[in-house]
Predict the structure.
Amino acid sequence: MNYSIKYKEHLNWLHEHHIELELSWTKVAIDDHFKNKRALNIFTIEKKTLGMILGHFLYEDQKSIEYEILHLAVLNKHRGKGVGFLLLSELEKQLRSIKNSVKIYLEVSAENKFAIKLYEKLGYKAYNERKNYYRSKSINAPHTQDAILFAKSLNVIK
C-alpha cells in the first residue's frame, strides 16, 4: 500500500467522491482545507486512491502537538479490507516522526460500530460523549445521533 500527502493530486478526487465518502463539506470548504498550512491529509493508494484522512494541527508548542482527525473515509468497495487501519497507522507513523508529544483527537457517531471498534483496536480511548450531536438533514426523519470523542497520545514526554 502506498500513501500520499500531496494535496493538489487528490483535490479533484475528493471533489469527485465526496458524496460516497460521506463528506458533507462544500466544494469551497474542501478547497479551503487544502489551502490550510496546518492541514495534514493522508491518502492511501493501490493503483487508485482508496481512502483518506483529512485533519489538521490544533495546537503546537516546544513539547506537544495536538492533531484532529476531521474525516476518515474509504470508498465503499474497499471497506472492510483494512484500509482504515492502514490509514490510521500511517498517520500515527507520520506524527511519531515529529518527536514531540502528540495527542490525536477525533469524534465518531455512536452508531458507527465499525469505526469505534477500529479506534479501540488502535488504542484510542473514549473520553466524552455529545448527546444528540449529529442531526438528520431530512425534515421527514428527525433523527439524532450521539457523538463519542476519542483521543490517543503518541511520543509521551514525561
